[in-house]
Amino acid sequence: MNRRDMLKTGALVGGAVALGAANSGAAESQWSESYAGVAQQPALAPGLPGKDYTPVITPDISSLPWKVVDGVKVFHLVAEEVWHDFAPGFKGKCWGYNGAVHGPTIEAVEGERIRIYVTNKLKAPTTVHWHGVFLPNGMDGVGGLNQRAIQPGETFKYEWTVRQSGTFMYHSHHDEMTQMAMGMMGMMVFHPRKPSPDYKVDRDFAIMLSEWRIDPGTSTPNPNEMNDFNVLTMNAKCYPGTEPLVAKMGDRVRLRFGNLSAMDHHSIHLHGHYFKITATNGGRIPTAAQPPGSTLFVPVGDTQDVEFIASEPGDWAIHCHMTHHVMNQMGHDFPNVVGVQKEGFDQKVRDLLPAYMMMGEHGMGEHGIHVEAGHMEVPKNSIPMVGARGPFDYITMGGMFTILKVREQLASYDDPGWYKHPPGTVADVASVDELRRDLGKTRPG
Ligand SMILES: [Cu+2]
Fold first, then answer.
1. Residue 304 falls within a domain, yes or no?
2. Which of 93, 109, 247, 340 could pair covalently with 251 via S-S, beta carbons 3.0-4.6 A apart?
3. Mean pLDDT of 323-345
4. How far is the centre of ligand 1, averaged over its atoms, from the C-alpha of 320 (Å)?
5. CA angle 60, 61, 65 (to 5 degrees)
């Protein structure tokens, strides 16, 4: 079924009404509630999943567990060194939280009181800043300014009443350049206490965008890098390590992106669909002002939410459109050899420089294929610069790339495998008859 058929059957129309027109004044009233000093009011009862909110999905990362103690929702973050899998065959010696990189997503509900213990198991002091969050100044986590740093072995306590809803982040705010480059960040989602009708979605995904410098053959991220990042990640995974996003036809889908890359903004493009930009780190955008798009600009230090109806079946790419951000461990200091024959040259250089990987005569797409075929080796603890084997051919993208899988029928939201295309809907080699009929050619090519 294509988009036009769906319009005819009303499947998309129903969804579009929910997405576009159903917004009452509820979102606006949340704004005034948020700004009207809820801090002065007594906290509300802790919100419960399934009753007060639908939990978000953070692909490749989980949500932080909590328990309620005397009406307060209590969380515990543990800052520690973590061996992290960026993709099969490629590990990093990173810093994260609770055994994960990035840290687990913290979910809470507007109006409730939360208490977050932070235990520092690193060898370095640290703090945690709650990014975009309204809270008492002494809970803001800027080392030296709002608190003293948490020393190794200490546990600090942060506590406040949640006064807003939306997509937020947390990250170290002590020696930021080092600690964020090592992975110390996570997503935070505060659900509205009284959601507007258009807030509810079927699939609610949170994705942190970040970047790293890990030279081929090494495993510790290099915090000194300022320009040439070579590992670009969604939830700390680079393709083909990223878990796909799965949706059923007609599902309302929200994607919440946060960007805590050191130096780069990202331009996230969704194939096959358009979305509406529904929120920034400053809260929900009133419905009438939500711009449509298919590419989302996510600046460093911001969050952006988009929402759309999964209306087109298939396997659709979602990726940063900056072409160097969909490469893995690429070095940028080798010569341009597109169109140059260079037989034997690679091996000669690699005898001297074992970590050397060179661009191919026909570009970079050859790289993954040569590695796959065993014609070429990548250095220890590294992966091909591009992609993985797809259903038709080699996918020549890596890094900040994942796949939205939309299906008409789904038994569960587990990865359904590759899309089975209806006959006649895949681009393929043109027949001689077609060439003759349409292009007046008697031979292919
Ligand atoms: Cu990018």
1. yes
2. 247
3. 73
4. 5
5. 150
